[in-house]
């Protein structure tokens, strides 16, 4: 059985595994959140104030009210009898409560740390409904992440087998680069409107769009160059129709004058097929040091995966360096343009700022 015959079964089984993992992870996370919802509400616990009685759940024993100067009320059970009440109004002031940092504060500080250097927290919060500490919640999250990874991998395999590897790369390039360029332009426009200083919004947007175009060209050339250097370029069979020993190409200068340029070496004309579509080659240089072909021969070559689909004949060890050089220049230029498009303009100093700076300089120089 070939891979093409097994591929439909792999896709069906893979998506079944994705659905099972996603459903299981979602169920575990839902159960963890449901159990965490029964946790009591959020309570704000404040530290005990210094000198205050510790909180407890038992009510203090109640005593019967008594008048000043009267007999003491009978003592409740398990309590020492009270002393006779003093005659008249009390004159002594109540003892003050200890303040924070007082030596009599309760030793709640960590061991090894002086009490004077320890400060209690202001508030402590007891979280409500936090399922992240539940092992079921973490397991469900892991299952969902695994389902996403397997689903993306199967989708990539399916699309790559349907449209081809380089067709898939073209789709990814367009889907990723175009949103990035649009987002870059929108971000630049928003920043220019917020600042409203030196640079105008249209200038910044045009700069960002130009940088995005340079990035697209640079990525295109980079992929083509790496395809030639890493032997990932598409192989082609070229049918030779003509062999020329040197060619003459004509061009016109800015004055409209016609000029001719002679290019020595062997040049080949021919055609090849890609997915049953015919493509022609005109005056393509033949590699130096190899015997030239004859008319009617079929020679091997390679074709760049992305536009402009440059073709080279085998063997061509230097193929791809031109594309890599163009890619480096365009990516560097795009980075420079993007930097100046997104850079915040410096604030201009007005007359008040200049006078203030002059006054500071005059003071530092001692008034001289």
UniProtKB/TrEMBL annotation:
Chain ranges passing through the membrane: 6-28, 142-160, 166-189, 201-223, 321-342
Name listed for the protein in its UniProt record: Uncharacterized protein
Keyword Transmembrane: yes
Feature: compositional bias, Pro residues: 93-113
Keyword Transmembrane helix included in the entry's annotation: yes
Residue stretches of biased makeup (Low complexity): 52-86
Keywords assigned: Membrane, Transmembrane, Transmembrane helix
Disordered, as annotated region: 39-137
Coiled-coil spans in chain: none
Organism of provenance: Saccharomonospora xinjiangensis XJ-54
């Amino acid at each position: 059985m070939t891979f093409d015959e097994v591929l439909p079964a792999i896709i069906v089984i893979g998506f079944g595994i994705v659905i099972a993992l996603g459903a299981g992870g979602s169920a575990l996370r839902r159960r963890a959140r449901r159990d965490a919802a029964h946790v009591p509400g959020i309570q704000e616990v404040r530290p005990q104030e210094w000198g205050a009685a510790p909180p407890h759940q038992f009510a203090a024993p109640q005593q019967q009210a008594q008048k000043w100067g009267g007999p003491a009320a009978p003592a409740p059970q398990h309590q020492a009898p009270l002393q006779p009440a003093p005659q008249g109004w009390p004159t002594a002031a109540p003892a003050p409560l200890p303040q924070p940092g007082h030596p009599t504060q309760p030793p709640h500080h960590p061991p090894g740390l002086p009490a004077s250097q320890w400060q209690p927290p202001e508030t402590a919060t007891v979280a409500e409904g936090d399922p992240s500490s539940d092992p079921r919640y973490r397991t469900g999250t892991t299952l969902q992440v695994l389902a996403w990874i397997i689903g993306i991998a199967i989708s990539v395999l399916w699309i790559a087998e349907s449209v081809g590897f380089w067709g898939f790369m073209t789709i990814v390039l367009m889907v990723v680069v175009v949103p990035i360029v649009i987002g870059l332009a929108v971000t630049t426009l928003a920043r220019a409107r917020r600042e409203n200083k030196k640079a105008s919004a249209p200038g910044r947007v045009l700069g960002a769009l130009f940088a995005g175009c340079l990035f697209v060209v640079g990525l295109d050339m980079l992929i083509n160059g790496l395809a030639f250097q890493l032997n990932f370029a598409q192989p082609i069979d070229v049918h030779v129709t003509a062999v020329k020993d040197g060619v003459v190409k004509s061009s016109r200068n800015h004055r409209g004058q016609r000029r001719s340029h002679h290019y020595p070496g062997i040049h080949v004309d021919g055609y090849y097929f890609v997915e049953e579509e015919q493509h022609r080659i005109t005056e393509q240089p033949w590699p130096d040091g190899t015997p030239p072909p004859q008319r009617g021969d079929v020679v091997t070559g390679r074709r760049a995966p992305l536009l402009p689909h440059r073709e080279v004949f085998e063997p061509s060890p230097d193929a791809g360096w031109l594309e890599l050089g163009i890619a480096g220049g365009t990516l560097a230029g795009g980075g420079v343009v993007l930097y100046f498009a997104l850079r915040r303009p410096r604030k201009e100093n007005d007359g008040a700022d200049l006078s203030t700076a002059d006054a500071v300089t005059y003071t530092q120089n001692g008034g001289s």
